[in-house]
Amino acid sequence: MAPVTEVPRRLRPRPSTTDRIFRGGSFSIGFLVLAITGSIGVFLGFQSIPTLRHYGLHFFVENQWQPEQDIIGISAVLLGTVCVAAVALAVAFPIAFTTALYISEYAPPRLRGFLVSMVDLMAAVPSIIWGLFGRDLLEDHFLVYVSHWIQQHAGWIPIFEVETDPNAAVFQQSRYVGSAFIAGIAVSFMVIPMACAVMRQVFSQAPLAEREAALALGATRWGMIRAVVLPFGRGGIIGGTMLSLGRALGETIAVVLIISPAFDLKIRILEIGTITVSSLIAGRFAEASAGQLSALLTAGFVLFLITLLVNTIAATIVNRSRSGAATDI
Amino acid sequence: MTDHTLPEWPGPPIGTETLPTAEIADRPLAGYHPTQYAPPPMAAPPAAPPRSGRPYRPSDDLPEIPRDLHRRTLDDKVSVIASAIGSLGLAWLIAERIMPVHGFAGFVPVWFVCYVAIYGAVTGVGNSLVVVKDRLASAVMHAGAATCGLILVGAIAFIAYRAWPALPHINFYTEDMSGVRPQDPLNHGGILHAVVGSLIEIGIAVIVTLPLGVGTAVYMTEVGGRFARVVRTVVEAMTALPSIVAGLFIYTVLIVYVHFPRSGFAAAMAISVMMLPIIARAADVVLRIVPNGLREAGLALGSTQWRVVWHVVLPTARPGLVTALILGVARGIGETSPVLLTSGAPSFMRVNPLPNTMNSMPLFIYFGARSGEPHYIDRAYGLAMVLLAVVLILFVIARRLARQRGGRS
Q1: Residues of A in contact with B381 (CB under 8 A)
Q2: Confidence class of residue B44 from pLDDT cuts 50, 70 and 90?
Q3: Which residues on chain A are in Cβ contact (under 8 Å) with B105?
């Protein structure tokens, strides 16, 4: 009798017909979305070619935007964008940082969930509401006086200069409205919850054992935070701040509502008049000819590239901190 | 006395029994020790002098009370209250008499600075520098969180206050603005067209983005591969697209090049372009946290990958997906810049989005707030309150669903 050799059953790891349809279908959806989203970037890039060819590098150093005289440049626009975003970050960072630490370390545990929801709710408030709040309440009744006060006491610092006499008998209120400072504060309300949410999440992931070890060694709460939570959350702090910077750079409506457009190349943030890329687009798209539209798209493309760069760096930092690589002290 | 006899041992003789290891693990080890069954002493033995070398102290007889770590000590309470009162006086002196800061908004920061200074000094009298730092840090954290809360509450309260004139009018909710002259009072005209326009636009945007976004997420997590990584990279990159640039893209392509009229449909496309990366990315995150064991269990039972996705992965992730969708809708419904460029802003009701211009909530608020007409501004604030309420309701629904994530739905 011939020995029976065991022949292993042949497995065919080929997907079934439904699976092939499923994979093909989901691939085509993925491809479609890639095509849609990718085409936006490519489209913006292509649109900026004629502009850059026409104006060359002057596009980046010219500060005027006068299409009638064929003088177009975005240096003032970019500077204004950076000023507004910088003010927004300078205001948002301390508030977001302390709120995140408060929620993760100081708040009573019963309140914590509620506070987290409140921060998320704050993130869901539409930007136009922050714009109204900033323009009609804060600007008129508060920030104009704050600007004046800062100018009086720190006016010798170039960024706090205002071209008017701070100690004039009649307070020239109209010189202090519509500034990058006020727009930046309205934008900061939008980015506080973003930065706060990222930071809080990273803080709450700080290892419990190390926290308890610090407390068991006799550390105060602040000592524990400095020794454990902050080193662990460093990536989250930086990443959250940069993510909110990305949002602050692209914010439109709150800025449009508040600022009075001016294409001056200046860093006097308290003074009336500034312009950002997004408010430039919102203000000028309607009467734009084909060439101007291309210039606006180029400005938008530059803004997109900056935002993309900032967001990518932020995402890298946040992801690295979550993997625990930043825990080595 | 029965107390002094050993109770009957219920099991086999001690030491001979064999127990399954699990049962041994469950029992307390001391249960096997014969002394456990020794009679309890009739009375507590007289306090023996301590065995250590140190002399006997009366306090050794007292039961040890653990120090209460949670409650605030008298020192804590008094220093907080006293510093608050003291700083109030000092702040009044500085703000009202010495420095030219006036008004409530100027007073509060001065008070806080005084409070921190006095609190630090008071704490420093009886405590080390470490404690001083701890208390000051705590004060700063509380102040920061309070500022944040004040901003949110202040904004909502301000909008509600300014919206009050417009809200009680019934016609505000049931009419559009057709035929309303600029000086007409608030009992003429309303916001219905803007609300309906917003709902239609966001509805189209959801119809477009939901299948595409979830489909992309399914492709990225379930199928995977090198191309999926490319898709994920590009989608994540496009979340950085500023919403005004999304609007400008649709404006240039649809309206300038294709000569499509400004319409609700174009606005819906602009919102879709803005929402698509957000929803795809959120859905991707939700699908990635579906446990792999569930997928493998489904596949091991012999089902195809499609059935695993449809019957296991997507139902498991459903609450999370709905949350992602609702938060995306809340974002899309309040975003002004894409619709500003693409939709036009008629003052009357339109329900057909395809060839016609269409108003929407953020756009109505924007133009109303910039109009300079007092009644238009009032209506804008009224609508802002309505928009805020819509976002709040969407948000609460999203929270409810997200909380069910641990459940079976």
Answers
A1: 132
A2: low
A3: 141-142, 145-146
Q: Which two tokens stand for residue B71?
A: 């409650």
**Dihedral sign of CA atoms B221, B222, B225, B226 in order:** negative
Residue length, chain B?
409
Q: Is the ipTM above a cut-off of 0.85? A: yes
Q: What would the mean pLDDT of A230-243 be, rounded to a whole number?
A: 88
CB atoms within 10 A of CB A116: 19
| Contact (CB<8Å) A221/B399 | no
pLDDT digits (tens, 9 = 90+) for A289-328: 878 888 889 999 999 999 999 988 888 887 776 544 444 4
Residues 6 or more apart whose CB falls under 8 angstroms from that of B33 comprise: none
Which residues of B are less than 8 Å from A128 in CB distance?
334, 336, 362, 365-366, 369, 384, 387
Give the pLDDT of residue B174. Answer: 86
Encoded tokens for B358: 């269409």
Q: What is the nearest CA distance from B104 to chain A, expressed in angstroms?
A: 10
Work out the end-to-end distance of chain B between its first and last CA atoms, rounded to an integer number of angstroms.
63
**Which of the residues B99, B116, B151, B331 would you substitute to probe the A interface, choosing the one with the greatest number of A C-beta atoms within 10 Å?**
B151
For residues A164 and B301, the model is more confident at B301
Report which of residues B330 and A101 the model is more confident about.
A101
Amino acid at A64: Q
Q: What is the mean pLDDT of chain B?
A: 81
User: Could you tell me the two tokens for B312?
Assistant: 């296991």
Contact B231 A304 (CB under 8 A): no
Q: Is B391 on the interface with A (CB under 8 A)?
A: yes
Q: Provide mean pLDDT across the span B371-384.
A: 90
Closest CA to A72 of A64, A82, A81: A64
Q: Where does A14-133 show beta strands of DSSP type E?
A: 65-66, 71-72
Amino acid in the structure at residue B337:
S
Q: What is the spatial distance between Cα A102 and Cα A108, in angstroms, rounded to a whole number?
A: 9
3-state secondary structure at position B210: helix
DSSP category for residue A168: -
Sequence ranges of the domains in chain A: 58-323
Instruction: Spell out a b/e string for B60-83, using b for 16 or more CB atoms within 10 Å of the CB, else e.
Output: eeeeeeeeeeeeeeeeeeebbeeb
Tokens of A32: 């479609």
Tokens of B94: 């500085």
Task: Tell me the mean pLDDT in the region A166-189.
Answer: 86
Of residues A113 and B22, which shows the higher confidence score?
Answer: A113
Task: For B69-120, write each residue's pLDDT tens digit.
Answer: 666 778 888 888 888 898 888 888 887 777 666 667 778 888 888 898 999 8
C-alpha dist (Å) from residue A226 to A35, B121, B151 = 47, 22, 27
CATH homologous superfamily of domain A58-323? MetI-like (1.10.3720.10)
In degrees and rounded to multiples of 5, residue A155 shows phi and psi of: -65, -20
What is the token pair recorded at A106? 């100081």
* Cβ–Cβ under 8 Å, residues A269 and A179: yes
- For position B150, what pLDDT does the model report? 93
Instruction: Output the CA–CA distances (angstroms, integers) from residue A312 to A1, A133, A245, A307, A315, in the order listed.
Output: 71, 31, 12, 8, 5
SS3 A274: strand
Q: What are the residue boundaries of the structural domains of chain B, listed by start?
A: 74-163, 192-406
Q: How far apart are CA B251 and CA A285, in angstroms?
A: 9
**B253 contacts A192? CB cut-off 8 A:** no
CA–CA distance, A200 with A236 (Å, rounded to integer):
8
Per-residue pLDDT reduced to its tens digit, B289-335: 888 899 999 999 988 889 999 999 999 888 888 888 888 888 888 88
CA separation for the pair A286, B366 (Å, rounded): 16
Record: fold of B192-406: MetI-like fold (1.10.3720)
pTM above 0.80, yes or no: yes
- Measured CA to CA, the distance from residue A152 to residue A149 in angstroms comes to 5
Whether the predicted pLDDT of B29 surpasses 90: no
